């Protein structure tokens, strides 16, 4: 008798359920793989955007030059556009439309001929003298400029009285740069015509007044001493026997090459001793004859306010531009010294002989003071320009108030000369 294996055949309802299950699984798989592909593409696009944004914002120097047009592929168009934007961000503002090779970021004050080839001369000047002048002090200015031109300085005259043509009879007049504006001081001129990018080719910038005697001053020797001593901000010492002295730190010390501080007993004022770390005891020069290195001037230019007139108050803060320790990098050069005649200028009457006689009767009688000499309070002697003196005091107070407000607003700024104890207490 035969045995039969009976295979049960699912009915129509069961077959319909199995088909539905397979279709559902297939649909789920299709959705999964499609979604994964789209997410990967979005992630790559997002990653590329983030990287390009980073390059644009902070790593512009790493941008690559786009390949030639014939080598571009459609897939690289977006990347090249972003690279172009990055490169433009690296350039000076306003130069984005120019090729990199044509951009000139700095300049100088060298004059060029109207026609013909440029004469081949010795290397161009590397130092600059800027001086505010009036026609009444023409003879004094002539002596100053002739001495500086002998040492290949670029000379820039700031005419505060508007008189320019009357200087043409001087042999050097056509070698100097003349800038004229009525009743403006040298700081007004310097802020507008001595931008750091313009004077970046000059190692030292002299910003002097016109009432200075230079019989005992040699610019080349002075610069040699400044380099040797590492001074970023300096001034020549004053001959006390012939000069009007307002601050004893500027007086020439006869037994030294350079001094950076002075000493004063506490007689109703501030004591200056070996422990002093602030101006005017140390790290300070007067504003009549300052000399800046190019790095120091780049910093100081930003500190000169647009409405600054006589620069009272600015002298107390110049040490922040000394490129380091102001007690070492700011000083007065004694070996090369000048005379401060204190001739009334900026529209005032001048009588040089009368001023010199008056100074001979009221000077420090030729004292040559060393760093160890103890000095009394500064000589309080001013000319008769009371309105100028009053304006200067007002300006000094305004500048100091601006300085305090600037410190409060800039939470990131830390005073490099403030002691750690003061930083902790906030004083």
Automatic annotation (TrEMBL):
GO terms for cellular component: cytoplasm. Residues 67-77 have a biased composition (Basic and acidic residues). InterPro entries: DUF707. Residues 60-80 are annotated as: Disordered. Pfam families: DUF707. GO terms for biological process: pollen development. This is Uncharacterized protein.
């Amino acid at each position: 008798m035969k045995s039969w294996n009976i295979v049960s055949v699912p009915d129509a309802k069961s077959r319909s359920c199995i088909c539905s299950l397979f279709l559902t699984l297939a649909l789920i798989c299709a959705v999964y793989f499609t979604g994964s592909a789209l997410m990967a593409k979005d992630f790559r696009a997002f990653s590329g955007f983030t990287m390009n944004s980073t390059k644009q914002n902070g790593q512009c120097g790493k941008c690559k030059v786009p390949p030639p047009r014939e080598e571009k592929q459609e897939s690289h168009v977006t990347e090249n556009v972003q690279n172009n934007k990055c490169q433009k961000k690296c350039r000076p503002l306003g130069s984005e439309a120019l090729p990199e090779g044509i951009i000139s970021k700095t300049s100088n004050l060298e004059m060029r001929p109207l026609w013909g080839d440029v004469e081949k001369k010795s290397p161009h000047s590397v130092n600059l003298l800027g001086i505010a002048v009036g026609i009444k002090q023409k003879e004094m200015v002539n002596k100053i400029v002739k001495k500086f031109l002998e040492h290949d300085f670029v000379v820039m005259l700031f005419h505060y009285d508007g008189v320019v043509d009357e200087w043409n009879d001087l042999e050097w007049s056509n070698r100097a740069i003349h800038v004229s504006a009525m009743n403006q001081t040298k700081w007004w001129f310097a802020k507008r015509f001595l931008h750091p990018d313009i004077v970046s080719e000059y190692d030292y910038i002299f910003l002097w007044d016109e009432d200075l005697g230079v019989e005992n001053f040699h610019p080349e020797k002075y610069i040699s001493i400044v380099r040797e001593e590492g001074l970023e901000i300096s001034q020549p010492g004053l001959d006390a026997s012939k000069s009007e002295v307002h601050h004893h730190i500027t007086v020439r010390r006869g037994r030294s090459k350079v001094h950076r501080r002075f000493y004063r007993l506490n007689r109703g004022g501030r004591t200056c001793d070996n422990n002093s770390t602030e101006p005017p005891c140390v790290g300070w020069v007067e504003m009549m004859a300052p000399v800046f290195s190019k790095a120091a001037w780049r910093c100081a230019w930003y500190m000169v306010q647009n409405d600054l007139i006589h620069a009272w108050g600015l002298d107390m803060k110049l040490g922040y531009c000394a490129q380091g320790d102001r007690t070492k990098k700011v000083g007065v050069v004694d070996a090369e010294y000048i005379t401060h005649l204190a001739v009334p200028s900026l529209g005032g009457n001048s009588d040089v002989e009368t001023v010199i006689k008056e100074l001979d009767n009221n000077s420090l009688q030729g004292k040559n003071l060393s760093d160890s000499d103890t000095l009394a309070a500064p000589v309080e002697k001013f000319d008769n320009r009371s309105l100028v003196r009053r304006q200067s005091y007002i300006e000094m107070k305004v500048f100091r108030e601006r300085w305090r407000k600037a410190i409060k607003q800039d939470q990131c700024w830390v005073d490099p000369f403030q002691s750690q104890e003061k930083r902790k207490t906030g004083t």
